[in-house]
Specification:
The complex is a heterodimer of chains A (451) and B (396). Chain A contains 11 helices and 21 strands. Chain A has 451 residues and is α/β, with parallel strands linked by helices. Among the domains of chain A are: 4-25 and 110-257, Rossmann fold; 370-451, no CATH class. In chain A, a hairpin with a 6-residue loop joins β18 and β19. In chain A, α3 crosses α6 (245-257). Chain B is globular and about 70 Å long. Chain B is an all-alpha fold. Chain B contains 17 helices and 1 strand. The longest helix of chain B is centred in the C-terminal third of the chain and has 37 residues, at 359-395. Classes of the chains: A alpha/beta (451), B mainly alpha (396). At the A-B interface, β21, α10 and α11 of A face β1, α3 and α17 of B. β21 (336-337) of chain A pairs antiparallel with β1 (36-37) of chain B, so a sheet runs across the interface.
């Protein structure tokens, strides 16, 4: 089979509340939403107003600077509410869904017989395009560029992540159709990263027109950034595109049936979920029905995504565009008496200053406590333990903090996105807001150099 | 616990905006967060965080220093009564030492934290925990007989010019504790070197120093006479004259074990410094026959492993060279930095005409060089990345 790439640096944070491999029954929620905040680095404009009727596939937003990139409704129904924040910033476009989803027809078609422009047009028109993300900068792909390769990570090593083999089960045809379409978009290869610790699903191993790479190691081995770094690193001037496997399937369905059919399977996990399991939903779903009666009565943190990179949402909030997981953990807003010296067996640490290091297989019920305050950089060598790139993370961060574009470029900013730094942020003794800083750096580069 | 909570809540209004002591908020905050790690939750980025914070890191180092501190206290008393030719019990020795050492620790913390607090109030910063370690290190690397006002002045110099002018904790170039020692060493050399300062020989009525008593350190003897009366076993245990915390290799090894097990101290720096020391020791052993004077010959001929247990070598490489702020910060840089620290320690020790010890100078020198080492390590990384593009262009 394919080559095995071992990832040595990293750490698996073991948490309580892994989703059982069962699909729970949830009623289809009443509302869905698109959140422009899921798309960093671009300015969006509305193409609907409150009260408009939409079908699944009707454009709701578009990129102001690149009008062909449209963000479409995942369901049919009525635009219920447009939520704005400070300075009228668009936060959510809520859609009241019909019981039965009406799809706009984009026409089925075999991507193999289509040319690049036709495939592109279809993806752009149907709202599938934003599923494709571009590195550098972790933004919605720029349709005018041709990526040097497309990367798809087919396993997720983040804490409590959905088992991708499980969620794609039985969707071989859709996945293959999606890959065929993506193959039209690049002159390079399509790389699939699969888990070297397990027997990956045949959806991936039997897939044609791709190159398989096996990865073995702790998180972030499943991050597509780590895989790109090991397969074909991004240099200055390069662009690569990345997708989630379930999004390839959505694209596949478009070509098989002509519909923007954004059905996905997500894991509902975390220590505060009574019955952690999987559920079948549509992109942008309200999490209210999924969580009601299924979470503990504590003060909880609701996260769209995983505990490392996810977004905080309200208990009746909406699943993020790129998130395939909902996590609920307790809030940790209690002061701790002499907390800096107590042994804290129930807290996680990569250092061995807490007694928890003596229980290597312990599953934690971690809360959201910072466990300390922000300080200057003091400790060194800590990020490097969980950052499997040939990049100096602290130096890169410092160059971002002083907005030194040349240094950022030299130190490798093109290869990384926020999620690659998530573990650095977790282990940071000085509690530096690492992911936020990386995003600022990416936004600055984007502003100065364009996509 | 409730009591503390209520107390903090009751005084809090005075320190908040509009309160009488508004300007002293950093001081209040320092105490409040000392008592309670605040229940702040993650706002941006990762939702779960490591249980470690800077307070815990620093306190771990302080704990690692405790064996050396306790042993130092006992040794001060032991050396004192030995010089007077009196035999007293363990607790009397320890008590004598404690009476000498505790005031130094108190002065170091009081002066250092006072300045730190003052700067935090002026800069409106939160109080950083860095001084917790520095404050403990400073007395441990001083001779016992140094007057307390000199300790205080060294602390002022180290904290203000060694740290705060660079921007405070995390920004300093030199190790603050060694800066304090270097200041005292150059300002008051007669209190910091020679063979009179290491042992307290104060006498009361009816006491006198025994005949033929020498207060020289092992290195002092080696440098002047070419041999030492102290056995390697004594040096290892630490019942020899020297700075308060540096003498006992056993106590330092316990500290090193704490630092290495918890992962707070860099094993790379400690190990490579050890290698550097051994390497230089071996080179000296090899070239010893060619030395000019007989004293030099026998000093250079000292078995290389004895260098590791003499003077401040062990203390320096375990507690000083590993200071993350002033050491090299890259992994490869740490290897180079550590090795050169070890190498230079022994080289300066043997060749220094003024004073037979080189640990302080070697580490301070390498502190200055550390950013340069890191610079070249990072440049190499950048070149590697640029080369990747060139290779591609060629093959394309």
């Amino acid at each position: 089979m394919s080559d095995l790439i071992k990832i040595k640096r990293g750490v698996d944070i073991k948490l309580v509340g892994k989703a059982e491999q069962l699909y729970g029954n949830t009623e289809q929620p009443e509302t869905f939403a698109l959140k422009p905040t899921d798309f960093p680095g671009i300015r969006v404009k509305l193409s609907v107003k409150e009260g408009d009727e939409v079908k699944a596939g009707t454009p709701i937003l578009y990129n102001k600077d690149r009008k062909e990139v449209k963000f479409c409704s995942p369901v049919s129904g009525e635009i219920a509410e447009i939520v704005r924040g400070d300075k009228r910033k668009l936060l959510e476009i809520r859609i009241l869904a019909d019981k039965e989803i009406q799809y706009q027809d984009f026409g089925a078609g075999d991507a193999k017989t289509m040319d690049r422009e036709a495939v592109k047009e279809k993806l752009l028109a149907s709202g599938c395009w934003p599923l494709i993300r571009q590195r550098p900068y972790n933004i919605v792909a720029n349709p005018e560029r041709t990526p040097k390769a497309i990367f798809i990570s087919c396993f997720d090593t983040a804490p409590l992540a959905a088992d991708i083999d499980f969620v794609v089960h039985g969707q071989e045809n859709e996945f293959q159709a999606g890959i065929d379409a993506l193959a039209r978009l690049t002159d390079g290869k399509i790389h699939l990263g699969v888990d070297g610790r397990t027997n990956p699903s045949t959806v991936f191993t039997n897939c044609k027109g791709v190159e398989l790479h096996r990865f073995r190691g702790p998180h972030p081995a499943g991050n597509v950034g780590v895989q790109i770094h090991n397969i074909d690193p991004i240099n200055r001037g390069d662009a690569v595109w990345t997708l989630n496997p379930q999004d390839v399937i959505i694209i596949g369905r478009l070509f098989l049936s002509g519909k923007f059919d954004a059905n996905i399977n997500v894991a509902v996990a975390g220590s505060e979920v009574s019955k952690p399991r999987y559920t079948k939903v549509v992109l942008g779903t309200s999490v209210k029905n999924i969580l009601e009666g299924n979470v503990s009565q504590n003060k909880n943190r609701y996260i769209s995504g995983n505990v490392l990179t996810g977004t905080r949402i309200k208990p009746d909030g909406y699943l993020g565009f790129y998130d395939r997981q909902i996590t609920v953990i307790p809030e940790g807003d209690q002061d701790q008496f002499f907390g800096w010296i107590t042994p804290n067996p129930n807290k996680f640490s990569i250092s061995r200053t807490l007694v928890s290091w003596m229980q290597p297989n312990k599953k934690y019920r971690l809360d959201t406590a910072m466990n300390g305050e922000e300080r200057a950089f003091v400790v060194t060598g800590e990020y490097e333990k969980v950052f499997p790139f040939d990049i100096y993370p602290v130096q890169l961060l410092k160059s971002i903090m002083i907005k030194d574009i040349e240094s950022m470029e030299n130190l490798g900013i093109y290869e990384v996105v926020e999620e690659d730094f998530a573990l650095c942020e977790v282990v940071c003794t000085s509690k530096i807001p690492v992911q936020e800083t990386v995003r600022e750096g990416l936004d600055l580069m984007l502003k100065e150099l364009g996509d | 616990m409730k009591l503390f909570k209520n107390l903090l809540e009751s005084v809090k209004p005075h320190f908040e905006k509009g309160g009488k002591l508004e300007k002293l908020y950093p001081v209040y905050d320092g105490f409040a967060t000392f008592l309670f790690v605040p229940g702040h939750t993650a706002h941006s980025g990762a939702h779960v965080r490591d249980g470690i914070d800077l307070k815990r890191t620093m306190i771990t180092v302080v704990l690692a220093l405790v064996p050396a501190l306790l042993f130092g206290m006992w040794n001060v008393g032991y050396q004192h009564y030995k010089a007077l030719g009196e035999t007293v019990g363990f607790w009397d020795q320890f008590l004598f030492g404690a009476i000498k050492v505790v005031p130094m620790v108190v002065v170091s913390y009081a002066v250092g934290l006072g300045i730190e607090f003052a700067f935090c109030v002026i800069k409106k910063h939160q109080i950083n925990e860095g001084y917790l370690v520095t404050g403990m290190l400073i007395p441990l690397i001083m001779p016992v007989d140094i007057p307390l006002w000199m300790v205080a002045l060294s602390v002022v110099f180290a904290v203000v010019l060694g740290k705060e002018v660079f921007g405070g904790t995390g920004m300093n170039i030199l190790n603050p504790a060694l800066t304090a020692r270097a200041f005292a060493f150059f300002a008051y050399p007669s209190y910091m070197s020679g063979d009179k300062v290491w042992i307290n020989t104060s006498t009361e009525a009816g006491q006198s120093v025994v005949d033929g008593y020498s207060g020289a350190t092992a290195l002092g003897e080696l440098a002047t006479t070419g041999s030492t009366s102290l056995s390697p076993m004594d040096m290892f245990i630490g019942s020899i004259p020297g700075s308060i915390g540096e003498t006992s290799v056993i106590a330092i090894l316990i500290g090193a074990a704490i630092l290495l097990i918890t992962g707070i101290g860099s094993w790379r720096i400690m190990f490579s410094a050890l290698l550097g020391g051994v390497a230089m020791g071996l080179i000296f052993n090899w070239v010893a026959p060619y030395a000019t004077s007989p004293e030099q010959q026998s000093f250079m001929g000292t078995p290389f492993w004895q260098h590791l247990i003499m003077g401040g070598f062990a203390f320096g490489i375990v507690f000083m060279a590993t200071d993350p702020v002033s050491a090299a910060q890259t992994t490869r840089g740490k290897w180079i930095y550590g090795f050169l620290v070890g190498l230079l320690c022994i080289m300066i020790r043997v060749f220094n005409p003024a004073y037979p010890e080189g640990v302080m100078m070697a580490i301070l020198f390498m502190n200055v060089m550390a950013p340069l080492i890191d610079h070249y390590v990072i440049e190499a990384n950048i070149k590697r990345r640029k080369k990747r593009v060139q290779v591609k262009v060629k093959t394309a």
